[in-house]
Design a protein that fits this description.
By secondary structure, the chain is mainly α. It is built from seven helices and no strands. It has helices at residues 2-13, 15-21, 24-32, 34-42, 52-71, 77-102, 105-113. Helix 3 (24-32) runs parallel beside helix 6, helix 4 runs parallel beside helix 6 (77-102) and helix 5 runs antiparallel to helix 6. The protein is elongated. The model has no long low-confidence stretch (mean pLDDT 89).
Length: 114
Amino acid sequence: MGSLAQKLLTSLKSKEFREYLMSTHFWGPVANWGIPLAAIADTRKDPSFISGKMTLALSLYSLMFMRFAWRVQPRNLLLFACHFTNECAQLTQGARFVNHNYLGGKERETKDKA
């Protein structure tokens, strides 16, 4: 285990790792994590506030950037993970939107309040 820890420490001290930390391959995805985190937090909110158009737009946005992150050389797996997470969150929000507006969720909610 000591050898593995030593290798990790050596890798973290390397010039390549420092360059990675100062690159857009690192800071771009870090800045983007606000979008999926907000979408995950919104899954606890009332579905009547969900915008179907914005959810669709963010889903398409994340699909495009997942493809970009996979195709760019070198691959940007941090960006891919960020947009994969956002895609899952947006699909969850989209399902909540459809359920609430088109599959009777609104009516069940009104019935439960009465």
